[in-house]
Design brief:
This protein has 19 helices and 13 strands. With 422 residues, it is an alpha/beta fold. The chain has three domains: 225 residues, Rossmann fold; 87 residues, Tyrosyl-Transfer RNA Synthetase; 75 residues, Structural Genomics Hypothetical 15.5 Kd Protein In mrcA-pckA Intergenic Region, Chain A, CATH 3.10.290. The strands form three sheets. The protein has a six-stranded mixed sheet, sandwiched between helices. It has a five-stranded mixed sheet with strand order 9-13-12-10-11, with helices on both faces. A two-stranded antiparallel ribbon has the order 7-8. Strand 3, helix 4 and strand 4 form a beta-alpha-beta unit. The longest helix is centred in the C-terminal third of the chain and has 18 residues. It is elongated.
Amino acid sequence: MNPCNLIDMLRNRGLISHIAHENSLNEIIQNHFISLYCGFDPTDDSLHIGHLLPLITLKRFQIAGHRPIVLIGGATSLIGDPSFKKKERIFCSNKNINLWTEKISKQISYFLDFNCGDNSACLLNNNIWFNKINILSFLRDVGKHFSINTMINRTAVKQRIIRPDQGISFTEFSYNLLQAYDFFILHEKYQVLLQIGGADQWGNISSGMHLIYRRNRKKVFGLTIPLLIQSNGIKFGKTESGTVWLNAKKTSPYKFYQFWMNIEDTNVYDFLKMFTFIDILEINQREKERHIGNNVMYDKSCLAKNITELVHGKEQLLSVERITHFLFSKQHIYLKESDFEQLKQDGIPSVQVKYIKDLQDALVYTSLAQSRTHAKNMIISNSISINRQKIRKNHIFNNQDKLFGKFTLLSRGKKHHSLLCW
């Protein structure tokens, strides 16, 4: 067995919010390889960075020799988990759920090893058993083990019940039983002993543990991972401009990378522990030396690179690094056409143009200048560049300015950019 104490490692990395029967679980995973699972409901066509910690935690268990099972909620996503939601979800169609299941299953496959022998990861869908279940049997065999009094006193449910403008439907209320049944089935058919999830899943995980004990008199385990909340109170992964997705077509690798570069300095070392596989002793040493020179920015860059490569791969990380050097360093870097496509997607402000009179007009059109006079003064003061080349007088655009025949980068100083897309 792996001599590493996995539970201690997870706690030292800040990855445990709740844990049930810790001593028993610790003893079992120290002496045996187990199967564990985490569920993901396909409620959109991509996972987002809020899903990263559960996936990374599954990966940590697999590295230690345990078998991770990913359960796609093809059935439960038709209901929608009400946990700590302010209002009921909009119901998804079967067609969308089937399409989204295919897409997020592919994303998940990048994180875990599905071909490594006895602890190969396994991907399942709970519609396998829910499509066959009889409602009367479910109410008799599952529902009878749950007290309404207990269920309505769960924090996630109580918060909705006390809101007269929203309340909670019976449909959502039943979700807790459905997820409990998932754990029960996985325990019976796949010998799953542990369910993990975000801290908001503790009530659902506890219900699964309860059902298995009531029906089989077997002790199983639950572990939740902290939910990350930003200083502005917004759930981690959400920004003013929207969710940070793992799908490169929804959030480009460059924007993904920049998200991590822009986190608060106070979070850098906690996130290095939680999101990367860098040795914790090295991270602790880096934290001690954070005030030396520009170490925090270097360590933030290390975090961004690690997570970008984990999610998008080495090739996309190299693209991100090219773009970053092109925009922010003095080095002369040549970008690929695909790099400019990332910038056009969401990397920097971009505008579609057919004809522009001159540079002054372009600066006004891209909002880099307030007026032609303002633009003229900036050009004279040597603060404007075209494709990283300083411009000292008004300029008429020509084909040489159009990289790959369609992109021109305008810059004001070092930090303000706009992309002309011809």
